[in-house]
Specification:
- The protein has a single domain, classed as Aldolase class I (TIM Barrel, Alpha-Beta Barrel).
- The chain is globular and about 40 Å long.
- 48% of the residues are buried.
- The chain contains 9 helices and 8 strands.
- By secondary structure, the chain is α/β, with parallel strands linked by helices.
- It starts with 6 loop residues before the first strand and ends with a helix.
- Helix 2 links the parallel strand 2 and strand 3.
- The chain is 41% helix and 18% strand.
- The longest helix has 17 residues.
- Helix 1 packs across helix 9.
- Pathway: Cofactor biosynthesis; thiamine diphosphate biosynthesis; thiamine phosphate from 4-amino-2-methyl-5-diphosphomethylpyrimidine and 4-methyl-5-(2-phosphoethyl)-thiazole: step 1/1.
- Its cofactor is Mg(2+).
- Belongs to the thiamine-phosphate synthase family.
Length: 204
């Protein structure tokens, strides 16, 4: 993973043609794709996962399955991303030993440090700014808290939540190793161009 940092991670939205969206993101420079469809069946997720992993291979990108450790195991995904309410990280690590990547969501310093102790390979931290892509129960973390987290962790921190080409530079200046987005690419008039703009922001 480290050789691809800094990176843009595209998380598939709940609606639309996710394969087409992923292709646009990869063409625009995204180096991580996370398959996320909360209400899809296991069969659908597996089928999409096989296709997306092949695409990621072609673009030298990382393919991550959201939540579903079983899907990641079944098709030998590059990794899995788990949340605070999912399978405990230490259990996921036993099922998916290195070099399989495990990312863990965190919204506090304590959660981020716990993820590091338990064997995560990276932390997805946020939401940084207001976002409509996911329902949130807490207020935005902001770049000040992000800066504190990145200064405490040895792991790469990928920031998420309300990130766009307008604020991505501030996020990276706060120590993030990358950014994760949904609507900034999927809802753009030109998704590939939007991905290119984001990629340019993180590499300046």
């Amino acid at each position: 993973m480290n050789h691809l940092l800094p990176l843009v991670c595209f998380i598939t939205p709940e609606e639309g043609n996710l394969v087409e969206q992923a292709v646009n993101a990869l063409k625009g420079g995204a180096r991580m794709i996370q398959l996320r469809r909360k209400h899809a069946s296991g069969h659908e997720l597996y089928s999409w996962a096989v296709t997306l992993q092949q695409l990621c291979r072609e673009f030298d990108a990382i393919f991550i399955v959201n939540d579903r450790v079983d899907i990641a195991m079944a098709m030998n995904a590059d990794g899995v991303h788990i949340g605070q309410e999912d399978l405990p990280l230490e259990k996921a690590r036993k099922l998916l030993p290195s070099p399989v990547l495990i990312g863990c969501s965190a919204s506090t310093i304590a959660e981020a440090l716990k993820a590091e102790r338990e064997g995560a390979d990276y932390v997805g931290f946020g939401h940084i700014f207001e976002t409509i892509s996911k329902k949130k129960e807490h207020s935005p973390c902001g770049t000040e808290l992000l800066r504190k987290v990145t200064s405490r962790l040895k792991l790469p921190v990928i920031a998420i939540g309300g990130i766009s080409a307008m604020n991505a530079r501030d996020v990276m200046d706060s120590g993030a190793a990358g950014i994760a987005v949904i609507s900034a690419i999927s809802s753009a008039e030109n998704p590939e161009l939007a991905a290119k703009k984001l990629t340019a922001c993180i590499r300046i």
